[in-house]
Amino acid sequence: MTTPYAKLFSLPGTRAFTLAGLLARLPLPMTGIAIITLLAQQRGSFALAGAVSATFVLTYALLSPQVSRLVDRFGQRRVLPPATLLSVTGLLLLVACTWLHAAAWPLFIGALLSGCMPSMSAMIRARWTHLYRNLPQLQTAYSLETVLDELSFIAGPPLAVGLGVALWPQAGLLAAAILLALGTTLLVLQGHSEPSRVIRERPLQAVWRIARVRLLSGLMMAMGLIVGTVDIASVAFANAQGQPGAASLVLSAYAIGSCTAGLLYGARRWHLALQRQLLLWALATTLSCLPLLLVDSIAGLAGAVLLAGVFFAPTLIVAMALVERSVPEEQLTEGLTWLLAGLNIGVAAGAAAAGQLVDLGTPGSGFFVALAGAVLVLATALLAVRKPAPVVAHAQ
Predict the structure, then answer these.
(1) By three-state DSSP, how is residue 201 classified?
(2) Which of 345, 340, 344, 21 shows the shortest CA–CA distance to 180?
(3) Fewest CB within a 10 Å sphere: which of 24, 35, 103, 109?
């Protein structure tokens, strides 16, 4: 199984930009939880902590496609440094405001600036596409990137919380700022693997106006509903069972299922058309969420969450591949970023909706949000595959 992945790194520079991307993508999952942990402890207000964290998440979801649009137009080397500088400035502002016990309103300014963070996952996928466009290795590269995304969301939050507890409360945000600056710097120094800019005589259609991109972004938002629900409902269920520490094991099961499936998916060649694959994985996602409604023990929850996680990575990989075939080469970064933005919005919405249901009912009632998300995944997949593939114009 390792051979396809080893072949990816046969080209010079691939290991270097993969490592840089791994460092630079950690700040995204670190920042939200670091804000919540810091403000909840220092200000004693989960409402303020949640509001500032939500400001960061929503700003990132709205701005990251715009940053990627500029990247497609001017190149990573010219756009990533100023965007990263704004984000690092916001993170340092949050650190300074909490260190100096400033008023609450500057915290929201810091969160807004922090949301200028580029979508590093899209930047690295764009580099893989530049190297392996129309080759079988691209599927393997997308699989690898999905697994690395999962690993960053596994390692990032514990790292941020651990630093904040072991050192000082602001350490998690400070580490995110350092990793973002370091990873971005290492990436932009590697110009040989950067996608080349393509100049067109006529302006291109906006990526968001491409129907398939909108539908696939909606599909990823629905996938995010499932992820956000699993996070909140699993913690609530474990607390209700008197085993709060078991929540981390349950959430690890979701990540393990997704990472394993992603690696296996990328290690083989699939002869089924991407549209049919999308329907297959969407149907499997819907069916895999049904056991979540039946769990009555921690072990049962871990098994159900593991099953649900198995179909996340393949669905994301196929959606990314469809976007790659649906947008012009010089708009790829923006197209991929819209999917990742949709996923982040869905995670935030799923966590909020599941939290409301848990408060109003039982811990298990939150999983109805996951089921609703799964149904939306299938419905959106059906609409996406029925849409004719856009005619992608090639640069002259």
Answers:
(1) coil
(2) 21
(3) 103
User: Does 341 have pLDDT greater than 90?
Assistant: no
Cα–Cα distance between 183 and 158 in angstroms, integer?
19
For the stretch 288-311, pLDDT in tens is 999 988 888 888 888 998 998 888
Alpha carbon distance 331, 328 (integer Å): 5
How far is Cα 245 from Cα 331, in angstroms, rounded to an integer?
Answer: 44
Instruction: Please give the mean pLDDT across all residues of the chain.
Output: 84
The rounded distance, in Å, linking the Cα atoms of 365 and 90 is: 37
pTM over the 0.90 mark: no
Amino acid at 213: V
Please state, in angstroms and rounded to a whole number, the distance separating the CA atoms of residues 136 and 8: 10
**Mean pLDDT, residues 154-172:** 79
Which architecture does CATH list for 206-389?
Answer: Up-down Bundle (1.20)
Nearest one of 179, 171, 205, 229 to 372, comparing CA atoms: 229
DSSP assignment of 55-104 equals HHHHHHHHHHHHHHHHHHHH-HHHHHHHHHHHHHHHHHHHHHHHHTT--S
Longest CA–CA span in the chain (Å) reads 64
The CA distance from 334 to 138, in Å, is: 18
Write the DSSP symbol of residue 136: T
pLDDT tens, residue by residue, 182-231:
999 999 998 788 887 666 555 566 777 788 888 999 999 999 889 888 87
Q: What is the pLDDT of residue 172?
A: 87
